[in-house]
């Protein structure tokens, strides 16, 4: 990786076409620092992978940085299918499917609601709308803990407390501020003539949304999707508060598996389970690259 | 649609833009019922002696007196203060320094950025569990250093109640600095190249240009980042649960965990409401000046 530090390259003398020196003291400081920092960030991932591929005897004798002498995938199998939480011993697989069943509808519903909302705010301004929007944005800063119990009551009254439906509603609610902001700003940035022309042609609210806005805004939908998928998948608090154990999302189940007090701690299984839980957001992160950065920059308020 | 039969005759004020209003119902409900209503409800019930169920029997400031007399709450506040102070300083400093390094027209910028930001994609639970493992004194960093010959080396923050909060801080910084770096880098990229040229012509050393020119110019970015970090600090919960569960003893408790435990475990709703109201106050103290700077006092550019 340290291309600059490779010896044997022409590194000194003002003779070459390029006047910039590659091995200047400044470069060594810059790349050296970044290299050390990169190691610090990568270390936990490395240790997780190494630990998850070792057997328990090897963990007890060896250090956590040593690569496994004998690679075994048994911890992964166990974490996925056999690890115990409470009375159930069917591993993380249940939590994984719960998370899928929570994330998919939450993402679709919250984006559908917020995009229409942002569109209304950007193009169909009505009296008072800005006030509600301001409240919504300020509301995003209020700690969730303040609103949790009233929501429990509302969900209980609706008869969906403890179910997946209830949790999907909660994710939609808390996704609303940032997603609406995202879509409102995007739609407001589109040329107004487009909207006006469609109006002159007699297109209404929904026609303009589906025929003009939606096709033009695929990138922002992707950003919103990345933001929501990672956010909802990584959620812990709402999962713990608003669902019953059989519906626990993967994060909650993971915490219960690793931090359970009884029994011998199987660090290799724990690390395999942790990696399994991190796999979905990591995959999205590595695939989406710059779009992820845009998404989190927009959604940082939510975290 | 149902309203059209009545409203078509005279242009009713309420029916103008009806579709937009219908589309905004979820937003209006969320804003009014959940954010305003829910917050008001919690604040109101924090003055009652609700135990297992919310009851409207007012007891004045009793819950707050009890709260501020509870050792566990005081430790939570102290932890939050330490964690908040250091995480603000370190995130900003490390984030800015990394961004400044990344801004030197380096090779592999993408690779470095990817590496620094990936922890942010992970759940706090995942982060907490990894660092629980790395900081495990029997197998983790402590045992490695000891096996290298420093047999008296002690580094077991998660098992030492005096320094446990710093153990949590390490994990938090690992997860969060990448984001700060990205925000700062965006801020640096927004600064005109000519500023750098002018500084170079004047012979001002680089570090001085950063401190005296660039950082003051990035005031907006710094404030935004500060607000983002600060509101995250107040909410810190998952990380503590995953790393220490509040232990050893109650040494790493934080306010968000206090709220959860009193509402859903100890069945002492009044305490939970009072504690969450205190969290609300803390956030308000951060947000109000920011909102004033950002939106009040005339329109300034961001």
From TrEMBL, chain B:
The chain crosses the membrane at residues 21-47, 80-102, 114-134, 163-188, 209-234, 273-293. GO terms for biological process: transmembrane transport. GO terms for cellular component: plasma membrane. SUPFAM superfamilies: MetI-like. It is a multi-pass membrane protein. The keyword Cell wall biogenesis/degradation does not apply. PROSITE patterns: ABC_TM1. Keywords: Cell membrane, Membrane, Transmembrane, Transmembrane helix, Transport. Residues 77-292 form the ABC transmembrane type-1 domain. It comes from the Bacteria. It is found in: Cell membrane. Belongs to the binding-protein-dependent transport system permease family. PANTHER family: ABC TRANSPORTER PERMEASE PROTEIN. This is ABC transporter permease subunit. It comes from Sinorhizobium terangae.
């Amino acid at each position: 990786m340290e291309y600059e530090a490779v010896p044997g390259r022409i590194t000194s003398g003002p003779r070459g076409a390029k006047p910039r020196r590659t091995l200047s003291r400044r470069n060594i400081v810059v790349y050296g620092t970044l290299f050390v920092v990169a190691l610090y960030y990568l270390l936990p991932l490395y240790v997780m992978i190494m630990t998850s591929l070792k057997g328990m005897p090897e963990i007890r004798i060896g250090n956590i940085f040593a690569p496994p002498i004998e690679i075994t995938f048994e911890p992964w199998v166990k974490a996925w299918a056999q690890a115990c939480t409470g009375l159930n011993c069917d591993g993380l697989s249940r939590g994984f499917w719960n998370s899928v069943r929570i994330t998919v509808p939450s993402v679709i519903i919250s984006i559908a609601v917020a995009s229409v909302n942002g569109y209304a705010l950007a193009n169909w301004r009505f009296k008072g709308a800005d006030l509600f929007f301001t409240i919504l944005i300020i509301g995003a800063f209020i700690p969730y803990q303040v609103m949790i119990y009233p929501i429990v009551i509302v969900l209980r009254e609706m008869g969906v407390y403890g179910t997946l439906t209830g949790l999907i509603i909660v994710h939609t609610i808390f996704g609303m501020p940032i997603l609406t902001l995202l879509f409102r700003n995007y739609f407001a940035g589109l040329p107004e003539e487009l909207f006006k022309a469609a109006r002159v042609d007699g297109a209404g609210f929904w026609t303009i949304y589906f025929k003009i806005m939606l096709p033009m805004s695929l990138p922002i939908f992707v950003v919103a999707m990345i933001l929501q998928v990672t956010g909802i998948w990584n959620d812990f608090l709402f999962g713990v508060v608003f669902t019953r154990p059989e519906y626990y999302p993967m994060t909650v189940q993971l915490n219960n598996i690793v931090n359970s007090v009884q029994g011998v701690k199987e660090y290799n299984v724990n690390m395999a389970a942790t990696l399994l839980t991190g796999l979905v957001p990591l995959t999205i992160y590595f695939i989406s690259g710059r779009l992820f950065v845009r998404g989190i920059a927009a959604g940082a308020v939510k975290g | 649609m149902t309203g059209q039969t009545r409203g078509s005759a005279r242009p009713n004020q309420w029916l103008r833009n009806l579709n937009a209003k219908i589309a905004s119902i979820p937003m209006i409900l969320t804003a009014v019922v959940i954010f305003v209503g829910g917050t008001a409800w919690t604040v109101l019930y924090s003055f009652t002696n609700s135990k297992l169920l919310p009851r409207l029997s007012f007891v004045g400031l009793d819950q707050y007196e009890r709260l501020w007399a509870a050792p566990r709450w005081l430790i939570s506040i102290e932890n939050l203060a330490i964690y908040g102070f250091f995480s603000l300083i370190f995130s900003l400093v490390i984030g800015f320094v990394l961004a400044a390094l990344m801004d030197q027209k380096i090779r592999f910028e993408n690779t470095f950025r990817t590496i620094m930001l990936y922890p942010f994609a992970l759940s706090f639970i995942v982060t907490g569990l990894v660092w629980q493992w790395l900081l495990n004194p029997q197998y983790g960093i402590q045992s490695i250093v000891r096996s290298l010959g420093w047999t008296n080396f002690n580094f077991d923050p998660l098992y030492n109640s005096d320094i446990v909060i710093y153990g949590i801080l390490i994990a938090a910084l690992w997860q969060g600095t990448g984001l700060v770096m990205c925000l700062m880098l965006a801020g640096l990229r927004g600064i005109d190249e000519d500023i750098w040229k002018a500084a170079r012509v004047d012979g001002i050393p680089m570090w001085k240009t950063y401190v005296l020119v660039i950082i003051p110019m990035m005031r907006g970015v710094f404030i935004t980042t500060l607000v983002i970090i600060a509101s995250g600090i107040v909410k810190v919960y998952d990380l503590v649960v995953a790393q220490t569960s509040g232990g050893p003893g109650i040494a790493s408790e934080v306010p968000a965990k206090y709220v959860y435990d009193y509402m859903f475990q100890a069945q002492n709703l009044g305490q939970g409401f009072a504690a969450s109201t205190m969290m609300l106050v803390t956030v308000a103290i951060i947000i109000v000046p920011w909102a004033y700077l950002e939106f009040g006092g005339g329109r300034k550019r961001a």
